[in-house]
Automatic annotation (TrEMBL):
It comes from the Bacteria. Residues 10-109 form the SbsA Ig-like domain. It comes from Nibrella saemangeumensis. This is Ig-like domain-containing protein. Keywords: Signal. The keyword Signal applies. Pfam families: Big_5.
Length: 519
């Protein structure tokens, strides 16, 4: 048996014919709700998708009938309260599963309906993109941090455009915030959820429209060691969050060995000489928001075995291989192990394959435990620059050599690139203008320049943003909900910038005004 073929495809959502109670009914005293539709229906995740405001922890049992949905609440509704039961997209037609969107039932247990509303949009602060399915909530004004332990009184979810609307709200004072409720428990989890909030409470006496909330990640919980990796010559410690910097204190100074920050959340130690099988250390790690944590760990190296293969000693360059560069640029090499020694006789810098320049060790700037090299290139080349490293040019602390490598860069032709310039219109004293590509990588930046110019912009799609550097530390800093400290603002130019070869973009202005005497 099967459904007969043919016929026009059903593209219509179920239509609500009537409900108990009726829409906008007052003096409702029951606990049972039923909605009746014009066709057979199906229901999806009703307990998770039904939103009841004000949020009072109400739970319900339900039955699905061919053309209706029946809900029986386990607790009575509060007196003199306006309730909104929103079904989001939980109810669909039975054949083509077209959802009945914006389906909600409003009623009051008192003599009148509350009619105030709050609407706006939620975006991601770092990317500027809209956030769908974010929880937006109103909380009672208290000294405690409501979102960590309490569910909101009124709440809504953002649509695919990041827009939200909360209606039928009672007049009064509220705290307004939003977060991406990853586990759907209506509580903010600072470790893996982003949050945005209004610093000051709102006194709701009329409708409020156009509220903008920007989500940011604050994760100020102490860093923890999530796993370790022991090898015969190295020991890796992986943390549960990224860090900015670290410091090592060895319990015995004579056990000191080199280490690097191998990635944003991994510290790696290198056993470059004879040491005990175990070494005690105390790590002081500092994350991106300045939270400092002390971690005790014992480094335990694995016994040597012929089956163990040594980790390769490699390096990544910036600019990358075969990139177009100006005649003067800063060349960096990031190594996978600390560098132990250099043989400058095995390093050659050639301009146009004819003119050579001596490599000067005195110009090197080292960072990250001598694993990141920065060297200024100042060439007279017209076509290309070649940096040749013979085997043995760089030796790691473990005495293995970087393999022979040649880095070739062509001298850029300005006609192959674009130029972007504009102004910053702001009363903020400190700010950063950044040009970022589609993956969010910063391509160029200028600090505190009222007029900025980005030259030699490769053809492609970019976004332009203004970072308000309130503490003047040269970077963006996140906020803290517990301290009611807002994240530093990031303002995006509203349009995507399509850079083209030999093309100038002028008048691309960024505007932002700091609130005077804001608390």
């Amino acid at each position: 048996m099967a459904q007969p073929p043919g016929g026009k495809k059903d593209s219509l959502a179920p239509v609500l014919l009537k409900s108990i109670p009726e829409s906008k009914q007052t003096n409702f005293k029951g606990r049972e709700i039923e909605l009746f539709f014009n066709e057979y229906i199906s229901v999806e995740n009703l307990p998770q998708k039904v939103i009841v405001t004000p949020g009072t922890g109400l739970t319900f049992n339900y039955k699905i009938r061919p053309t209706s949905v029946y809900l029986k609440f386990n607790e009575p509704f509060k007196d003199n309260t306006t309730y909104t039961v929103s079904f989001t997209d939980a109810i669909k037609d039975a054949t083509e599963r077209n959802p009945a969107t914006n389906l909600k039932l409003v009623f009051s247990t008192g003599t009148q309906l509350d009619s105030l509303s709050v609407s706006g949009k939620v975006t991601d602060l770092k990317t500027g993109k809209v956030v769908a399915d974010a929880l937006v909530g109103l909380y009672a004004v208290r000294d405690t941090l409501n979102a960590l332990k309490e569910k909101p009184i009124y709440y809504s979810k953002t649509d695919t455009s990041g827009n939200f609307l909360m209606e039928n709200i009672r007049a009064g004072g509220y705290e307004l915030l939003a977060f991406n409720d990853a586990n759907n428990n209506f509580l903010f989890n600072q470790q893996n959820e982003r949050i945005g909030f209004l610093k000051d409470s709102i006194n709701l006496t009329g409708n409020i429209n156009g509220v903008e909330l920007q989500l940011f990640s604050q994760n100020n919980s102490p860093a923890k060691i999530s796993r370790t990796e022991s090898r015969q010559d190295s020991y890796g410690i992986t943390l549960d969050k990224g860090i900015e910097r670290y410091q090592v204190n060895f319990r015995r100074k004579e056990d000191s060995i080199p280490s690097i920050l191998a990635s944003a959340n991994q510290i790696k130690f290198f056993r470059n000489r004879a040491t005990p099988d175990t070494i005690g250390v105390v790590l002081t790690v500092v994350d991106s928001i300045g939270t400092s944590t002390d971690l005790k760990q014992t480094l335990s190296f694995r016994d040597r075995s012929r089956r163990d293969k040594a980790e390769p000693f490699t390096a990544v360059s910036e600019p990358p291989q075969n990139d177009a560069v100006e005649k003067t640029f800063n060349w960096t090499l990031t190594f996978t192990k600390p560098v132990g020694r250099i043989n400058k006789q095995l390093i050659t810098i050639l301009s146009d394959s004819t003119s050579s320049e001596e490599f000067d060790e005195g110009k090197i700037q080292w960072s990250n435990g001598q694993s990141m090299l920065s060297y200024p290139i100042n060439s007279s080349a017209r076509k290309d620059i070649r940096i040749s490293l013979e085997e043995g040019a760089f030796m790691s602390v473990l005495e293995d050599s970087l393999k022979k490598t040649v880095f070739t860069y062509r001298i850029l032709n300005p006609e192959d690139f674009g130029l972007l310039k504009g102004q910053v219109v702001s009363n903020a004293p400190n700010y950063i203008v950044e040009l970022v590509n589609e993956s969010g990588k910063v391509i160029s930046r200028e600090v505190n320049s009222k007029t900025y110019t980005f030259r030699n912009v490769r053809p492609g799609r970019y976004r332009l943003r203004l970072v308000i550097d309130r503490n003047n530390n040269g970077r963006w800093d996140t906020g803290n909900y517990q301290l009611k400290q807002e994240a530093e603002p990031i303002i995006y130019y509203p349009s995507i910038i399509q850079a083209k070869a030999d093309f100038q973009f002028e008048g691309v202005d960024l505007e932002y005004s700091e609130k005077v005497n804001s608390k």
